[in-house]
Amino acid sequence: MNAATQDARPNPAQNPARRPAFPFSALIGQSPLQQALLLAAIDPGLGGVLVSGPRGTAKSTAARALAELLPEGQLVNLPLGASEDRLIGTLDIETVLRDGSVRFSPGLLAKAHRGVLYVDEVNLLPDALVDALLDVAASGVNTVERDGVSHSHEASFVLIGTMNPEEGELRPQLIDRFGLMVELQNCFEPRVREEIVKARLAYDLDPVAFRAGYAREQAHYVERIRAARNKLAQLSFGDAVHAHVSALCIDAAVDGLRADLVMLRAARALAALEQSDAVTSQHVDSVAEAVLVHRRRQRDTSTADNAAGDEAMSRDLPHSSTTPSSSDVEAGDGDWGYLPPQAAATTHVKGVIPLNVKKR
Predict the structure, then answer these.
(1) For residue 320, which of 36, 112, 345, 353 sits 20 to 30 Å off, Cα-Cα?
(2) Is 258 a catalytic residue?
(3) What is the pTM for the complete model shown?
(4) 166 plus 51 within the same structural domain
(5) C-alpha closest to that of 117 among 48, 212, 32
(6) Rounded CA separation 66/115 (Å)
(7) Which of 274, 298, 322 lies at the terminal end of a domain, its last residue?
(8) What is the pLDDT confidence band of residue 97, given thresholds at 50, 70 and 90?
Protein backbone atom coordinates (compact mmCIF):
# COMPACT_ATOMS: atom_id res chain seq x y z
CA MET A 1 0.00 0.00 0.00
CA ASN A 2 1.44 3.37 -0.98
CA ALA A 3 1.54 6.55 1.09
CA ALA A 4 -1.35 8.10 -0.82
CA THR A 5 -3.54 5.14 0.07
CA GLN A 6 -2.52 5.35 3.71
CA ASP A 7 -3.44 9.04 3.75
CA ALA A 8 -6.76 8.17 2.13
CA ARG A 9 -7.69 5.67 4.86
CA PRO A 10 -8.33 7.12 8.32
CA ASN A 11 -6.72 5.21 11.17
CA PRO A 12 -9.38 4.44 13.81
CA ALA A 13 -6.64 3.90 16.40
CA GLN A 14 -5.53 7.52 16.08
CA ASN A 15 -9.08 8.78 16.52
CA PRO A 16 -11.34 6.13 18.07
CA ALA A 17 -14.30 8.50 18.13
CA ARG A 18 -14.15 8.88 14.35
CA ARG A 19 -15.77 6.08 12.40
CA PRO A 20 -14.00 5.21 9.11
CA ALA A 21 -15.89 6.24 6.02
CA PHE A 22 -17.85 3.87 3.85
CA PRO A 23 -15.60 3.09 0.83
CA PHE A 24 -16.25 5.07 -2.34
CA SER A 25 -15.71 1.94 -4.41
CA ALA A 26 -18.39 0.08 -2.40
CA LEU A 27 -21.21 2.43 -3.38
CA ILE A 28 -23.90 0.51 -5.27
CA GLY A 29 -26.21 1.87 -7.96
CA GLN A 30 -24.66 5.36 -7.82
CA SER A 31 -22.65 5.51 -11.06
CA PRO A 32 -23.86 9.01 -12.16
CA LEU A 33 -23.10 10.41 -8.70
CA GLN A 34 -19.69 8.74 -8.54
CA GLN A 35 -18.74 10.12 -11.95
CA ALA A 36 -19.82 13.67 -11.03
CA LEU A 37 -17.87 13.57 -7.77
CA LEU A 38 -14.73 12.25 -9.48
CA LEU A 39 -14.90 14.99 -12.12
CA ALA A 40 -15.21 17.65 -9.42
CA ALA A 41 -12.26 16.09 -7.59
CA ILE A 42 -10.14 16.23 -10.76
CA ASP A 43 -11.14 19.82 -11.56
CA PRO A 44 -12.47 21.65 -8.47
CA GLY A 45 -12.96 24.73 -10.68
CA LEU A 46 -16.09 23.10 -12.10
CA GLY A 47 -18.00 24.75 -9.27
CA GLY A 48 -19.02 21.76 -7.19
CA VAL A 49 -21.74 19.15 -7.30
CA LEU A 50 -25.33 19.59 -6.17
CA VAL A 51 -26.94 16.31 -5.13
CA SER A 52 -30.71 16.31 -4.93
CA GLY A 53 -32.71 13.40 -3.59
CA PRO A 54 -34.99 12.09 -0.86
CA ARG A 55 -33.77 10.98 2.55
CA GLY A 56 -31.70 7.81 2.75
CA THR A 57 -30.19 7.89 -0.74
CA ALA A 58 -26.54 7.96 0.44
CA LYS A 59 -25.90 11.64 -0.31
CA SER A 60 -23.77 12.30 2.77
CA THR A 61 -22.18 8.83 2.58
CA ALA A 62 -20.88 9.59 -0.91
CA ALA A 63 -19.48 12.96 0.15
CA ARG A 64 -17.52 11.44 3.04
CA ALA A 65 -16.33 8.61 0.81
CA LEU A 66 -14.90 11.01 -1.76
CA ALA A 67 -13.01 13.07 0.81
CA GLU A 68 -10.65 10.28 1.79
CA LEU A 69 -9.59 9.80 -1.86
CA LEU A 70 -8.14 13.32 -2.01
CA PRO A 71 -4.55 14.19 -1.00
CA GLU A 72 -5.52 15.81 2.28
CA GLY A 73 -8.43 13.51 3.02
CA GLN A 74 -10.17 16.44 4.69
CA LEU A 75 -13.94 16.70 5.01
CA VAL A 76 -15.29 20.00 6.35
CA ASN A 77 -18.96 20.33 7.23
CA LEU A 78 -20.72 23.69 6.96
CA PRO A 79 -23.50 23.76 9.55
CA LEU A 80 -26.79 25.48 8.80
CA GLY A 81 -26.31 28.04 11.56
CA ALA A 82 -22.84 29.12 10.42
CA SER A 83 -22.15 32.84 10.11
CA GLU A 84 -20.33 34.50 7.21
CA ASP A 85 -17.30 35.14 9.44
CA ARG A 86 -17.09 31.45 10.33
CA LEU A 87 -17.23 30.57 6.65
CA ILE A 88 -14.74 33.03 5.14
CA GLY A 89 -12.68 33.99 8.22
CA THR A 90 -12.11 37.28 10.03
CA LEU A 91 -9.57 40.11 10.15
CA ASP A 92 -8.40 41.71 13.38
CA ILE A 93 -8.60 45.43 12.51
CA GLU A 94 -7.19 46.49 15.89
CA THR A 95 -3.95 44.64 15.13
CA VAL A 96 -3.69 46.39 11.79
CA LEU A 97 -4.10 49.82 13.40
CA ARG A 98 -1.71 49.06 16.25
CA ASP A 99 1.08 47.08 14.55
CA GLY A 100 0.42 47.62 10.86
CA SER A 101 0.21 43.85 10.32
CA VAL A 102 -2.78 41.81 9.20
CA ARG A 103 -3.97 39.19 11.64
CA PHE A 104 -6.25 36.70 9.89
CA SER A 105 -8.33 34.06 11.62
CA PRO A 106 -9.06 31.30 9.07
CA GLY A 107 -12.60 30.13 8.47
CA LEU A 108 -14.05 26.89 7.16
CA LEU A 109 -13.03 27.72 3.58
CA ALA A 110 -9.36 27.74 4.57
CA LYS A 111 -9.76 24.50 6.47
CA ALA A 112 -11.36 22.82 3.43
CA HIS A 113 -8.42 23.64 1.13
CA ARG A 114 -7.52 20.57 -0.99
CA GLY A 115 -10.37 18.65 0.62
CA VAL A 116 -14.16 18.53 0.49
CA LEU A 117 -16.54 21.19 1.77
CA TYR A 118 -19.80 19.44 2.47
CA VAL A 119 -23.01 21.45 2.85
CA ASP A 120 -26.02 19.39 3.86
CA GLU A 121 -29.42 20.96 3.13
CA VAL A 122 -27.77 23.73 1.14
CA ASN A 123 -31.21 24.93 0.05
CA LEU A 124 -31.89 26.01 3.65
CA LEU A 125 -28.79 28.23 3.92
CA PRO A 126 -29.13 32.01 3.54
CA ASP A 127 -28.65 33.07 -0.09
CA ALA A 128 -25.74 35.37 0.80
CA LEU A 129 -23.82 32.48 2.37
CA VAL A 130 -24.43 30.19 -0.62
CA ASP A 131 -23.35 32.98 -2.97
CA ALA A 132 -20.11 33.50 -1.05
CA LEU A 133 -19.06 29.86 -1.02
CA LEU A 134 -19.95 29.41 -4.71
CA ASP A 135 -17.72 32.38 -5.56
CA VAL A 136 -14.77 30.77 -3.81
CA ALA A 137 -15.51 27.29 -5.18
CA ALA A 138 -15.29 28.63 -8.74
CA SER A 139 -12.22 30.86 -8.26
CA GLY A 140 -10.20 28.81 -5.78
CA VAL A 141 -9.32 31.98 -3.85
CA ASN A 142 -10.96 33.42 -0.75
CA THR A 143 -10.65 37.17 -0.13
CA VAL A 144 -11.71 38.80 3.12
CA GLU A 145 -12.11 42.58 3.23
CA ARG A 146 -12.78 44.73 6.28
CA ASP A 147 -12.56 48.54 6.40
CA GLY A 148 -10.19 48.81 3.45
CA VAL A 149 -7.97 45.95 4.63
CA SER A 150 -7.99 42.70 2.68
CA HIS A 151 -6.43 39.26 2.92
CA SER A 152 -6.51 36.47 0.33
CA HIS A 153 -5.62 32.80 0.54
CA GLU A 154 -5.99 29.69 -1.61
CA ALA A 155 -9.20 27.74 -1.10
CA SER A 156 -9.37 25.00 -3.70
CA PHE A 157 -11.88 22.40 -2.57
CA VAL A 158 -14.58 20.13 -3.89
CA LEU A 159 -17.92 21.64 -3.01
CA ILE A 160 -20.70 19.12 -2.44
CA GLY A 161 -24.14 20.43 -1.60
CA THR A 162 -27.06 18.16 -0.88
CA MET A 163 -30.73 18.92 -0.66
CA ASN A 164 -34.11 17.26 -0.33
CA PRO A 165 -36.43 18.92 -2.90
CA GLU A 166 -39.37 18.31 -0.58
CA GLU A 167 -37.88 20.90 1.79
CA GLY A 168 -37.65 23.70 -0.78
CA GLU A 169 -35.62 24.63 -3.84
CA LEU A 170 -32.63 26.87 -4.40
CA ARG A 171 -33.19 30.09 -6.30
CA PRO A 172 -32.45 29.69 -10.04
CA GLN A 173 -29.62 32.23 -9.80
CA LEU A 174 -27.85 30.03 -7.22
CA ILE A 175 -28.62 26.57 -8.56
CA ASP A 176 -27.14 27.57 -11.93
CA ARG A 177 -23.81 28.30 -10.28
CA PHE A 178 -23.31 24.69 -9.20
CA GLY A 179 -21.23 23.12 -11.94
CA LEU A 180 -22.86 19.68 -11.92
CA MET A 181 -26.06 18.27 -10.51
CA VAL A 182 -27.22 14.71 -9.89
CA GLU A 183 -30.80 13.84 -9.06
CA LEU A 184 -31.10 10.69 -6.95
CA GLN A 185 -34.26 8.62 -6.79
CA ASN A 186 -35.52 5.96 -4.40
CA CYS A 187 -34.47 2.49 -5.51
CA PHE A 188 -37.34 0.13 -6.29
CA GLU A 189 -35.25 -2.62 -7.89
CA PRO A 190 -35.34 -5.59 -5.45
CA ARG A 191 -31.90 -7.01 -6.24
CA VAL A 192 -30.19 -3.63 -6.02
CA ARG A 193 -31.89 -2.89 -2.71
CA GLU A 194 -30.75 -6.24 -1.36
CA GLU A 195 -27.14 -5.56 -2.38
CA ILE A 196 -27.19 -2.12 -0.78
CA VAL A 197 -28.64 -3.42 2.49
CA LYS A 198 -26.21 -6.36 2.64
CA ALA A 199 -23.25 -4.05 2.10
CA ARG A 200 -24.45 -1.65 4.77
CA LEU A 201 -25.00 -4.43 7.31
CA ALA A 202 -21.52 -5.85 6.64
CA TYR A 203 -20.00 -2.38 7.07
CA ASP A 204 -21.89 -1.75 10.32
CA LEU A 205 -20.82 -5.14 11.69
CA ASP A 206 -17.09 -4.61 11.10
CA PRO A 207 -16.07 -1.39 9.30
CA VAL A 208 -12.35 -2.21 9.29
CA ALA A 209 -12.78 -5.66 7.77
CA PHE A 210 -15.31 -4.35 5.26
CA ARG A 211 -12.96 -1.58 4.13
CA ALA A 212 -10.07 -4.03 3.84
CA GLY A 213 -12.00 -5.87 1.16
CA TYR A 214 -12.04 -2.68 -0.95
CA ALA A 215 -8.49 -1.49 -0.27
CA ARG A 216 -7.24 -2.28 -3.79
CA GLU A 217 -10.16 -0.50 -5.48
CA GLN A 218 -9.70 2.50 -3.19
CA ALA A 219 -6.01 2.73 -4.03
CA HIS A 220 -6.89 2.55 -7.71
CA TYR A 221 -9.25 5.53 -7.36
CA VAL A 222 -6.56 7.54 -5.57
CA GLU A 223 -4.11 6.85 -8.38
CA ARG A 224 -6.67 7.66 -11.10
CA ILE A 225 -7.45 11.05 -9.56
CA ARG A 226 -3.75 11.87 -9.25
CA ALA A 227 -3.00 10.86 -12.84
CA ALA A 228 -6.06 12.72 -14.18
CA ARG A 229 -5.05 15.95 -12.46
CA ASN A 230 -1.61 15.71 -14.04
CA LYS A 231 -3.04 15.11 -17.51
CA LEU A 232 -5.71 17.81 -17.35
CA ALA A 233 -3.54 20.63 -18.70
CA GLN A 234 -2.45 18.53 -21.68
CA LEU A 235 -5.95 18.27 -23.16
CA SER A 236 -7.55 20.88 -25.43
CA PHE A 237 -10.81 21.22 -27.35
CA GLY A 238 -11.29 20.79 -31.07
CA ASP A 239 -13.81 22.66 -33.19
CA ALA A 240 -16.08 19.60 -33.38
CA VAL A 241 -16.28 19.45 -29.58
CA HIS A 242 -17.03 23.16 -29.33
CA ALA A 243 -19.79 22.83 -31.94
CA HIS A 244 -21.32 19.84 -30.16
CA VAL A 245 -21.35 21.63 -26.81
CA SER A 246 -22.95 24.72 -28.34
CA ALA A 247 -25.65 22.63 -30.02
CA LEU A 248 -26.54 20.85 -26.77
CA CYS A 249 -26.72 24.08 -24.77
CA ILE A 250 -28.80 25.85 -27.40
CA ASP A 251 -31.21 22.92 -27.57
CA ALA A 252 -31.56 23.08 -23.77
CA ALA A 253 -32.28 26.84 -23.98
CA VAL A 254 -29.88 27.59 -21.13
CA ASP A 255 -29.26 31.10 -19.85
CA GLY A 256 -25.82 32.58 -20.48
CA LEU A 257 -22.64 30.66 -21.27
CA ARG A 258 -21.86 29.01 -17.94
CA ALA A 259 -23.26 25.68 -19.15
CA ASP A 260 -20.95 25.71 -22.19
CA LEU A 261 -17.88 26.37 -20.05
CA VAL A 262 -18.76 23.78 -17.42
CA MET A 263 -19.57 21.16 -20.05
CA LEU A 264 -16.22 21.64 -21.74
CA ARG A 265 -14.32 21.43 -18.45
CA ALA A 266 -16.30 18.38 -17.31
CA ALA A 267 -15.68 16.62 -20.63
CA ARG A 268 -11.97 17.39 -20.30
CA ALA A 269 -11.92 16.03 -16.73
CA LEU A 270 -13.60 12.82 -17.92
CA ALA A 271 -11.07 12.47 -20.76
CA ALA A 272 -8.27 12.93 -18.21
CA LEU A 273 -9.86 10.34 -15.89
CA GLU A 274 -9.92 7.86 -18.78
CA GLN A 275 -6.38 8.87 -19.83
CA SER A 276 -7.63 9.66 -23.33
CA ASP A 277 -5.44 11.48 -25.83
CA ALA A 278 -8.17 13.97 -26.77
CA VAL A 279 -11.53 15.31 -25.62
CA THR A 280 -14.26 13.87 -27.85
CA SER A 281 -17.97 14.34 -28.41
CA GLN A 282 -18.52 11.07 -26.54
CA HIS A 283 -16.99 12.64 -23.44
CA VAL A 284 -19.34 15.59 -23.88
CA ASP A 285 -22.37 13.31 -24.15
CA SER A 286 -21.33 11.48 -20.97
CA VAL A 287 -21.31 14.66 -18.88
CA ALA A 288 -24.10 16.62 -20.61
CA GLU A 289 -26.97 15.52 -18.38
CA ALA A 290 -25.18 16.49 -15.15
CA VAL A 291 -24.44 19.91 -16.65
CA LEU A 292 -27.91 20.57 -18.09
CA VAL A 293 -30.35 18.92 -15.68
CA HIS A 294 -30.58 22.02 -13.46
CA ARG A 295 -30.20 24.55 -16.28
CA ARG A 296 -32.51 23.18 -18.95
CA ARG A 297 -35.44 25.47 -19.74
CA GLN A 298 -38.61 24.87 -21.75
CA ARG A 299 -38.16 26.69 -25.04
CA ASP A 300 -40.94 29.12 -25.97
CA THR A 301 -42.03 27.78 -29.35
CA SER A 302 -45.32 29.70 -29.63
CA THR A 303 -43.78 32.53 -31.64
CA ALA A 304 -42.06 30.16 -34.03
CA ASP A 305 -45.23 28.08 -34.42
CA ASN A 306 -47.33 31.18 -35.17
CA ALA A 307 -44.82 32.38 -37.74
CA ALA A 308 -44.81 28.99 -39.42
CA GLY A 309 -48.60 28.93 -39.47
CA ASP A 310 -48.79 32.40 -40.99
CA GLU A 311 -46.30 31.42 -43.67
CA ALA A 312 -48.27 28.30 -44.53
CA MET A 313 -51.51 30.27 -44.72
CA SER A 314 -49.96 32.87 -47.02
CA ARG A 315 -48.93 30.07 -49.38
CA ASP A 316 -52.48 28.70 -49.48
CA LEU A 317 -54.21 32.04 -50.15
CA PRO A 318 -54.48 33.38 -53.76
CA HIS A 319 -52.13 36.28 -54.49
CA SER A 320 -53.16 39.43 -56.37
CA SER A 321 -51.37 40.10 -59.64
CA THR A 322 -51.01 43.75 -58.70
CA THR A 323 -48.54 45.30 -56.29
CA PRO A 324 -49.75 47.89 -53.78
CA SER A 325 -48.84 51.44 -54.69
CA SER A 326 -46.65 53.62 -52.50
CA SER A 327 -49.72 55.64 -51.46
CA ASP A 328 -51.50 52.49 -50.32
CA VAL A 329 -48.51 51.38 -48.27
CA GLU A 330 -48.20 54.83 -46.71
CA ALA A 331 -51.89 54.91 -45.83
CA GLY A 332 -51.62 51.49 -44.18
CA ASP A 333 -48.38 52.28 -42.32
CA GLY A 334 -46.63 49.63 -44.35
CA ASP A 335 -49.07 46.82 -43.44
CA TRP A 336 -50.08 44.82 -46.48
CA GLY A 337 -53.82 44.15 -46.58
CA TYR A 338 -54.72 47.32 -44.70
CA LEU A 339 -57.79 49.16 -46.18
CA PRO A 340 -57.96 52.94 -45.65
CA PRO A 341 -61.34 54.47 -44.61
CA GLN A 342 -63.77 54.95 -47.53
CA ALA A 343 -66.78 57.33 -47.81
CA ALA A 344 -70.17 55.54 -47.77
CA ALA A 345 -73.61 56.91 -48.94
CA THR A 346 -76.53 57.09 -46.47
CA THR A 347 -80.18 56.33 -47.16
CA HIS A 348 -83.15 57.84 -45.31
CA VAL A 349 -85.67 55.25 -44.19
CA LYS A 350 -89.22 56.38 -43.41
CA GLY A 351 -90.96 55.25 -40.25
CA VAL A 352 -87.82 54.91 -38.16
CA ILE A 353 -87.80 56.96 -35.00
CA PRO A 354 -84.31 58.10 -33.91
CA LEU A 355 -83.28 57.21 -30.38
CA ASN A 356 -83.96 59.75 -27.62
CA VAL A 357 -86.53 61.56 -29.86
CA LYS A 358 -90.16 61.52 -28.68
CA LYS A 359 -92.99 61.19 -31.20
CA ARG A 360 -95.43 64.06 -30.99
Answers:
(1) 345
(2) yes
(3) 0.77
(4) yes
(5) 48
(6) 9
(7) 298
(8) low
